[in-house]
What does this fold into?
Amino acid sequence: MTGHARYLDDLSMPGMLHGATVRSPVPRGILHDIQYSPEIPWNEFTVVTAADIPGRNVVQLIDDDQPYLADGEVNHAEEPIVLLAHSDASLLEEARRGISFEIEALPAVYTIEDALSGREIIWGRDNIFKTYLVSRGDVDVACAQPGVVIVEGDYETGAQEQLYIEPNGMLALARGEDGITVWGSMQCPYYVHKALAALFDLPGEKIRVVQMETGGGFGGKEEYPSIIAGHAALLSWKSGRPVKMVYDRAEDMVATTKRHPSKTHHRTGVSRDGRLVAIDIDFVIDGGAYTTLSPVVLSRGTIHAAGPYFVPNVRVQGRAVATNAPPHGAFRGFGAPQSLFALERHMDRVAAAVGLSPDELRRRNFIETGQTSAVGQVMHDAVDMSGLLERALELSDYHGKRQRFAAMNATSALKKGIGLAAFMHGAGFTGSGEDHLASIVEVEATVEGRVRVLTSSTEIGQGTNTVFSQIAADALGISLDAVDIVQPDTALVPNSGPTVASRTCMVVGKLVESAAQGLLTTLRSTGTEITDFAAACRDYVTQFGPLRSSAQYQAPSGLRWDDERYEGDAYGTYAWAVYVAEVSVDTVTYEIRLDDFVAVQEVGRVINPVLAAGQIEGGIAQGIGWALFEQVAWREGRMANAQMTNYIMPSSMDLPPIRVYFEERPYAEGPGGAKGIGELPMDGPAPAIANAVAHATGVDIRRIPITPETLMALMEPSLA
Amino acid sequence: MPEASVAIRCRVNGDDVELQGHPMTRLLDALRRELHLTGTKEGCGEGECGACAIMIDGRLVNSCLVPLLHADGAAITTIEGVAQGDRLHAVQEAFIAYGAAQCGICTPGMVLAAVDLLERTPHPTDADIRAGLAGNLCRCTGYVRIFEAVLAACGRRPAPSTARTLP
It folds into this structure.
């Protein structure tokens, strides 16, 4: 606000070097040699290759198949091969150009179809990182019943660039026996911690990871920071100097993770009165060259693929495949926006096939309290999708507008349309994920009665620090000003898990609440009556020493998940929503303008209305970008438009009024009744907009982004 | 560094300073590295995102596109010069009150753009605000709260319009 907040690039150290990455120019091949131009005084540079790595050359995450630096083979364009550092950053570009590679090119795979065809095997035995199968009832038998109408369709979503405004960056200081410290922009300090320990073969206590102010994450700073941290640390290890690496925008865009592209096939059986009897879904995501987080992105996408509906017969096959693109990664929504786009666009087509309005088909099929979801989760908590739908229809004047637009469109070159999407988002890690994380939070009180909250949850703009302060202050009955949130630093804070999966407020926040309550229990155990919290802390600390309390995650009773059969309680709870988009399509320029956007959701109790609305608005803006503007132009597995000039994200001129409404329904297991919120708003905008554009124009939208060019091709096939 | 070097004088946040460097050094780098005014951020380096916005002689510019030579004799305001000591500018107060900053990286440029807008157009319409901030990209907020903050800063105080709970 005043320019004094310190982000990574604002940090400097005496003797610091600047680091750069030399990357593969080809998508796939065998690396035979690295050549260094004689024009460059290499003795003035620190040069690191795979041969310099002291520990394991793998980015430790799920499958350990991704190297820090390519060694022997190259599997995607822009894969890091050599690292350089120099005290004068302006010399690095010329040095980078002074390095060339002798690479024997191999045939590469660029698309999901190519990966599945097996024409070229680039990963494992079949190019498939992971397969999931969800199965209930018998879809084939159900679809063969007389009177069942079958509706099929293929849907496709593109890659999406993260475009946090602060690019990835790290500063590392490696001092031999003393270990390694890194400072940087990140969501998950303990992911970086674990990866560095393996890279350097050092015990955990020799690694320290400190989060700086972080200029946006959205998932893009979930797994990637482990790579840039490792690179900076390798350069520091070899040079003995502090090394800062900050990507410029072009490098961040070509080299770091994007949202997984997807393809989905739907086959739906519906009765003539609009009851869904069977849904059969084939959902495939493009994981890029290495496993990274694709199996878990796939998992969430697969579980969300059947949406907020009750259907007796369900089959969902989910597959994550390998291509020779840089690995795709975590991005707000984590697979669910992709499968929900397909589902919610398809539902409008199913409605049309049986002569129902889009809202009526959904109303007849919403899952209700006590019913069982596609993965076998019984909805014990109250679900009221119909109520959310009615609110959204009313607030958007959906039916009135459908009628008026039909009349107007008959005579106007500007076609107006309105569309909706109904969806849900599971909060927290999928399945048994939270059990494995076993997150820990600590709270301590000082002799002055101030309270310090210690977690590894990062503030990345979503309001973690404010919400944790509120939760602790409420639990202790003290003022917000008396709570301090300790900056995540693995030397100070316990591992409360990564800052992802809409889990921070609901899961970690609950632990903050429990740990704070633990402080009160400890104070009371001495027989103290707490009338003045500060005085009680003073008395306790003076008499007994430090006053601390910790809390560790324990699954709410009754939750069960079977990893083998892939069924059970996939999430502790879900946030539910219905979004409505209103568009105008100019049939001369094919430009799509959003005129209104209504977002109605149930996210438990809203702890902080301003922050919560801010999360919804920002997520919707990203969803609008994904639906209409953001197109990655791929050339041989490389992003060709790696600039903000030709990769277009929404500006203030591009967005409609975004009207956000909350239905509050406290969730018993969340702090103060809250559920997760951050990812939900990414799921709804794209299908609502696609349905609105289809309504306005009468063309069948199957693919996003819907750019003017793609819309023209659909509306005027003869011109395309 | 290339050999060519110039020394220029300018006024930054009210202080007279001398800056030396290659005439084509980006003013963004000179401010950050020589004067340690790191509130000016680099988001794209090509004038698209507005994170590096500053005021030069009363005009809002992207400092990543301004060569050092052009700053000779100029009066420059960076984000560090917007508040008067401890007293925040009305735009900064409003950004805080309305939750207009999330991750904060676009905020310095956005605040300067809003200050510039209100100096030129003290009573902006909604369309003026959208157009006035169109050169500053924000990935977090969807701009809703930023628009409200700007309205609040010029005396039109809307209720935080999106914090609505259904009855």
Observations:
- Chain B has two domains: 6-81, 90-153.
- The helical segments of chain B are 27-34, 90-97, 107-120, 126-132, 144-153.
